[in-house]
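Extended Data, panel c. Modelled sequence:
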Amino acid sequence: MNLRLVIENFQKYGVLICLRCHDYRRHDLMLSTLLYALVPCHLFVAYVLELGAAQHAKGVLGRLKRSAESNPDSDPLMTSRAFQATWYTIAWAHGINASFCLLVTTFTVYYHIHHPLIGIICQIHAIIVWLKNCSYAFTNRDLRHAYLYPQHTSSDELPELYSQCPYPQNVTIGNLAYFWWAPTLVYQPIYPRTPSIRWTFVAKRLAECASLSIFIWLASAQYAAPLLHNSLSKISTMDVPSILERLMKLSTVSLVIWLAGFFAVFQSVLNALAEIMRFGDREFYTEWWNSPSVGNYWRTWNKPVYHFMRRHIYSPLVGRGFSSGFASLMVFVFSGLLHELLVGVPTHNILGVAFAGMMVQLPMIAMTTPLERMEGVNGRVVGNCIFWISFCLVGQPLAALIYFFAWQAKYGSLSKQKV
């Protein structure tokens, strides 16, 4: 946005920024606070489940050693149905606990929290905790298997760092609490740590976040909101040329807002949190803006989610004999469902647009991957152009228009016109 557009906007609309013009309700804040307060309860249940599993594993290991001394050829772990049933019970209990937390939040947001922004924040937190709960259960399952079957576990399967906190010594409240606040979605018994906290660094990152949050609010109220409202009549009459014109106008401001939000979250908030937690691994993203293909973008823009998907979905499927294409499909199906929960539930309009947007990424990845592998720079440049065009014009602005129109049709000016 250059200065001419800024002046033109103020001449046309005046000052649209208003501190008291937000349609949030007191019970929205109360319910969101209550949902946040319930999270430690689910984490404590996950800890109790793993504590019981660890105690059971200790008992089984003792019986195994005694059995091996009396009968070296026996392997009671592989033949005991009770042993296998115990692990299935723990897995089901973890799944119910983690999913119950997500379901309660989703139900509350969809039916009882009106403000979309408050609902999105609640959904983000619930999804993060759900992913962390799943990773905590999956990783401890693998560690428990290595603990019970050391002869079946090669030395390179477990990182050397894990020896500083071997299973089951990692099953403690403090260990789980650190993982809750650590800026990662993949559980480890121990993480690389920095020697001290640089509070000046933390203050700078928080100042960045505050400044960018104010900028996003100003840009959304002054520039994005008028464009969205002006698009309602065009969408309701299916005036395609006007819709395309609004879409191109919206692409600029939506890109600026998205970039500001990306920097605020991945550069400012996550680095501030990592510094406070003395978290050593700070690679939250890489140079996604130079992505020569759509697939490269999804591998680089959000490293915490990428590591979770690769660790707990993609690699296990490939390890069980499924093709890499099928594993990638499952990753995007899973991601599409999460995106729909993240956008459709807070706006009270589960349209499937966010899910469809993720599914469209698969053919685009197939189209741009050969360009990434071409010799020379021309293919990579073309792939990067395709990524930016789809990212700026087709992706976010179109989704924003559709969900905003659905919101207005249900609660806003369009619903009043129908009455």
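The longest helix spans residues 26-70. This feature is highlighted in the accompanying rendering.
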